[in-house]
């Protein structure tokens, strides 16, 4: 029997999301520092690091709204505001250009419109080009007065040591199952989210949101069904391979299945095969089909 088509969801941008779940210690650390800034000057650079989708950007925007004077005192550097060397928006790029950073620095040379604190939010440092990160570094070496830098990073090891050394690093951890359930209820109401999907998310609500937005959760469940069904044939495998291959963000579902069945030896082979889809311009459905068959052979 065909499964009922999933209703797709829309999730708010972190700027518009007032619902922050978890990370109480990190928020307390900032509030303590901010509320006592007249006694002990607050560190001007805060780096929020941790896996994608756990709420780092939501926290950063929440802090920013608390600190900056008005819209003119808030500067955002991210892929959505990325510009090319002509100053045109180029949001489809995979990295943030040095032009984007330079444009922000130029705007910051103007006096604060409110005379109050200004905030620079970078989401994420991992996505800056080398030149862009070096431009940020120069700014951090002598940060402007009454300016707070909020740097988001998904992988601390990807950040230049010289940038890390100028920041107060706050390590944020994956969400618990109960926290994930709380967010699911908040944003998806009565929609059922299986235990498999909660575990699959590895504490990232962002991953659950992505899966729900593109129907990946149902595809993953169907993938597990095919893998565990001894009577599944080549047609069944190809059908699920085609569904996975329609969206590059779904390719990793086969890696999640490998982890689910604890087939560690297959992981590097499958990872390389997925990488080759783009690198060698391979047919994605055939590559995914082969990986699924390899998983079935091991079960």
Characterize the structure shown.
The protein is α/β, with parallel strands linked by helices. It folds into two domains: 22-171, P-loop containing nucleotide triphosphate hydrolases (Rossmann fold); 177-298, no CATH class. Helix content is 47%, strand content 9%. It is built from 13 helices and five strands. It has helices spanning 24-35, 56-67, 98-108, 130-141, 161-164, 177-188, 195-200, 205-214, 216-228, 234-245, 253-260, 267-279, 284-298; strands at 45-49, 74-78, 118-123, 147-153, 168-171. A five-stranded parallel sheet has the order 2-3-4-1-5, with helices on both faces. Strand 2 (74-78), helix 3 (98-108) and strand 3 (118-123) form a beta-alpha-beta unit. Helix 9 packs antiparallel against helix 10, helix 10 packs across helix 13 and helix 12 runs antiparallel to helix 13. The longest helix is centred in the C-terminal third of the chain and has 15 residues, at 284-298. It is elongated. 33% of the residues are buried. Mean pLDDT is 91; it is low at 1-7.
Q: Indicate the CATH class of the largest domain.
A: Alpha Beta
The number of helical segments is: 13
Helix content: 40-55%
The side-by-side strand order for the widest beta sheet comes to 2-3-4-1-5
Measured by DSSP, the beta-strand proportion falls in 5-15%
Q: Roughly what is the average pLDDT, rounded to an integer?
A: 91
The CATH homologous superfamily name of the largest domain equals P-loop containing nucleotide triphosphate hydrolases
Shape, please? elongated
Structural class: alpha/beta
Task: Determine Rg (CA atoms, Å).
Answer: 22 Å
Distance between the termini: 24 Å
Number of strands: 5
Number of individual domains: 2
- Written as H for each helix and E for each strand, in order along the chain, the element string is HEHEHEHEHEHHHHHHHH
Q: Characterize the biggest β-sheet.
A: 5 strands, parallel
CATH architecture of the largest domain: 3-Layer(aba) Sandwich
Q: Show unreliable segments.
A: 1-7
According to CATH, the fold-level topology of the largest domain is Rossmann fold
């Amino acid at each position: 029997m065909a499964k009922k088509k999933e209703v797709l969801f829309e999730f708010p941008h972190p700027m518009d999301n007032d619902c922050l779940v978890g990370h109480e210690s990190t928020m307390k650390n900032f509030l303590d520092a901010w509320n006592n800034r007249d006694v002990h000057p607050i560190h001007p650079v805060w780096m929020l690091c941790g896996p994608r989708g756990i709420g780092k950007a939501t926290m950063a925007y929440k802090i920013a709204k608390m600190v900056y004077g008005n819209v003119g005192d808030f500067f955002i550097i991210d892929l959505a505001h990325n510009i090319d060397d002509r100053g045109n928006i180029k949001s489809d790029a995979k990295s943030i250009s040095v032009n984007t950073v330079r444009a922000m620095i130029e705007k910051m040379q103007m006096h604060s419109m409110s005379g109050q604190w200004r905030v620079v939010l970078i989401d994420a440092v991992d996505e800056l080009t080398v030149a862009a990160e070096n431009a940020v570094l120069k700014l951090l070496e002598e940060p402007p007065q009454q300016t707070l830098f909020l740097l988001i990073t998904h992988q601390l090891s990807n950040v230049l040591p010289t940038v890390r050394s100028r920041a107060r690093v706050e390590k944020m951890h994956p969400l618990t199952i109960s926290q994930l359930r709380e967010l699911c209820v908040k944003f998806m109401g009565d929609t059922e989210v299986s235990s498999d999907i909660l575990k699959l998310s590895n504490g990232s609500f962002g991953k659950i949101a992505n899966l729900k937005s593109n129907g990946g959760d149902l595809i993953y469940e169907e993938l597990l069904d095919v893998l565990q069904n001894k009577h599944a044939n080549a047609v069944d495998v190809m059908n699920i391979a085609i569904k996975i291959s329609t969206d590059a963000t779904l390719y990793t579902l086969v890696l999640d299945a490998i982890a689910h069945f604890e087939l560690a030896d297959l992981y590097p082979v499958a990872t390389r095969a997925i990488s080759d889809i783009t690198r060698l311009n391979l047919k994605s459905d055939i590559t995914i089909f082969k990986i699924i068959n390899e998983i079935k052979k091991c079960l």
